[in-house]
């Protein structure tokens, strides 16, 4: 199971595009509220009902842990100690992580981008501790996928599909959307 974490103030296009594209590719994904409330309001006042809450996530079976950006969403993700502990444990278990827009700073602050190529929303680069800044809009470096911002949400989602199911499936999903 893949999980995408929703914090109050998340960037809606980044979260919902990922969920939509992964499901089109028949990849299991659940949206997770980092609070005890299933209802999460995004940065643009769009209310989303999460599939589950953080305390109910089975991290033992988790594949990708995905962080959408947005402000203050990314800050709220970073301040969620149970989530950051799971991100660190997931990384230590050599399992994949993904973050877009401002959210790569969550991984950077935890030291999880050390020696990796990464990208983020302009202005957050100083938070990517130990990372090599990429000039690409979406980059996969080892088991970590990062992307620049909301304009690249579809490319980010397709990169996740490619990472999970391969180029042929990602290309078929892309073609099916045009």
Q: What are its keywords?
A:
178 residues, 11 strands, seven-stranded mixed β-sheet, alpha/beta
Topology:
Elements lengths: L1 E5 L5 H13 L4 E5 L5 E3 L5 E3 L2 E2 L11 E3 L5 H6 L2 H12 L4 E4 L3 H6 L7 E2 L13 E2 L4 E4 L2 E4 L5 H13 L1 H10 L2
Helix pairs in contact: 1-5, 5-6
Structural account:
The chain has helices at residues 12-24, 73-78, 81-92, 104-109, 153-165, 167-176, and strands spanning 2-6, 29-33, 39-41, 47-49, 52-53, 65-67, 97-100, 117-118, 132-133, 138-141, 144-147. The mean pLDDT is 97. The protein is an alpha/beta fold. The chain starts with a strand and ends with a helix.
* Number of continuous helical runs: 6
Biggest sheet descriptor: 7 strands, mixed
Helix content: 25-40%
Give the C-alpha Rg: 15 Å
Structural class: alpha/beta
Mean pLDDT: 97
Low-confidence regions:
none
| Strand count | 11
Tell me what portion of residues adopts beta-strand conformation: 15-25%
* Global shape: globular
Main sheet strand line-up: 5-2-1-6-7-11-10
Distance between the termini: 28 Å
SSE pattern, N- to C-terminal: EHEEEEEHHEHEEEEHH
Briefly characterize the structure.
This protein is α/β, with parallel strands linked by helices and 178 residues long. The protein has six helices and eleven strands.
């Amino acid at each position: 199971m893949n999980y995408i974490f929703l914090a109050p103030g998340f960037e809606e296009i980044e979260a919902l595009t990922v969920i939509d594209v992964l499901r089109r590719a028949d990849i299991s994904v659940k949206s997770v509220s980092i609070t005890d409330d299933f209802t999460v309001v995004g940065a643009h006042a769009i209310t989303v009902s999460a599939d589950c809450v953080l305390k109910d996530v089975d991290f033992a079976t988790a594949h990708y842990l995905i962080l959408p950006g947005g402000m203050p969403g990314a800050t709220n993700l970073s301040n969620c100690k149970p989530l950051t502990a799971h991100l660190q444990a997931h990384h230590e278990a050599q399992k994949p992580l993904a973050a877009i827009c401002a959210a790569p700073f969550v991984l950077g602050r935890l030291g999880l981008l050390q020696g990796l190529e990464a990208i983020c929303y302009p202005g957050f680069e100083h938070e990517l501790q130990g990372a090599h800044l990429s000039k690409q809009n979406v980059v996969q470096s080892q088991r970590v996928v990062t992307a620049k911002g909301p304009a690249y949400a579809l490319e980010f989602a397709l990169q996740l599909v490619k990472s999970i199911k391969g180029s042929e499936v990602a290309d078929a999903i892309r073609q099916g959307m045009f």
